[in-house]
Fold this sequence. Notes:
By secondary structure, the protein is an alpha+beta fold. It has helices at residues 11-16, 29-44, 59-69, 89-108, 114-120, 131-134, 160-177, 192-196, 228-231; strands at residues 81-86, 137-144, 146-148, 154-156, 181-182, 203-212.
Amino acid sequence: xxxxxxxxxxxxxxxxxxxxxxxxxxxxxxxxxxxxxxxxxxxxxxxxxxxxxxxxxxxxxxxxxxxxxxxxxxxxxxxxxxxxxxxxxxxxxxxxxxxxxxxxxxxxxxxxxxxxxxxxxxxxxxxxxxxxxxxxxxxxxxxxxxxxxxxxxxxxxxxxxxxxxxxxxxxxxxxxxxxxxxxxxxxxxxxxxxxxxxxxxxxxxxxxxxxxxxxxxxxxxxxxxxxxxxxxxxxx
Length: 236
């Protein structure tokens, strides 16, 4: 037992903002290692995909992935995110056309400098984005820069990018866990998505996810991930 005393809120504060018991299951250490190892090994097979099958994906799976992503922690619990899910062929076509134009400028008119293009070379990417039209779903995550209240007043959101980044990570993991593939796509700039999708001025596109099943025999770049000792520093 810990002798640490949790600073519960005062009676007056608790009456306005009540606390509830934490739902948590503590596992035996061997079970924890087994669960963590299995989860890690599964995610090691996760790869970004640019070759999608047009096979339909049930809307409920997209909803479940978004519900999972929305469990992410957020600054002051403001939940500063909006997930726009698109299956409309017409809207996907418009997104592809606008994204390809931005990327054409990036790749062919040198908006991306040589160092950036050199870093992207192993991925085999260019300004063609057919997958945006072929994938059965596109989900665009918008960050809510501030709250726009009904009376017209603004309320500040906190740690918006950090919060949306965590939610995006959970979204990717949820899709992989259910057997779907995705890609974190960020054509730069992405402001065209705000107008095309009719989003309010307090929202800004954060990342776009084409979602679906990969084509049979899809090839991905032969990449290796850094070893643990390259990404972890242990201070004991």
